[in-house]
Specification:
CATH class: Mainly Alpha
Largest sheet: none
Helix content: over 70%
Bound molecules: fe (ii) ion
Strand content: under 5%
CATH topology: Ferritin
Number of helices: 5
CATH architecture: Up-down Bundle
Oligomer: single chain
Radius of gyration: 15 Å
Number of strands: 0
Structural class: mainly alpha
Length: about 140
């Protein structure tokens, strides 16, 4: 325990999480009857998908094979039948990603990687805010 992860290990973990995110937000958008929620989830899905592509190329550029896996978060979240519970768990997932991004050692990142991760962090904090608003609207 406590073994520090390498930069590419962390990137691969994020890649597996963002793949889950694509499935999650696609489904949450589909399942929601509210148009405003629907649109935001579609937008988040697109961001997750974009993150997958960029992470894939950043990992490849470090001459490491990008993971082919998806983490188990989508199965866990989509097993929930209540929309409020799904949103609550999705908020936790975004908080997990934001926290994970803070584990990177800045010194080992290129400027491009750092800029991408800063943006990805900001996006996930934004996701948390908008999903909290959805919960309050109910
Ligand atoms: Fe995500």
């Amino acid at each position: 325990m406590g073994e520090k992860k390498t930069t590419v290990e962390l990137m691969n973990e994020l890649l597996e999480a963002e793949r889950s995110g694509v499935i999650i937000y696609e489904q949450m958008s589909f399942l929601s009857s509210r148009k405003d929620v629907n649109r935001v989830f579609c937008m988040i899905r697109n961001n997750e998908s974009r993150d997958c592509g960029i992470l894939h190329s950043l990992i490849s550029r470090r001459e490491v094979k990008p993971s082919d896996n998806m983490n188990g978060f989508a199965d866990k979240l989509l097993a929930l039948e209540d929309e409020k519970e799904r949103i609550e768990l999705a908020i936790k997932g975004c908080a997990w990603v934001a926290e994970k991004i803070t584990e990177f050692s800045e010194a080992d990142l290129t400027e491009e990687e750092r800029d991408f991760l800063v943006g990805m962090h900001r996006q996930h904090i934004w996701n948390i805010g908008v999903m909290r608003e959805f919960l309050n609207l109910e």
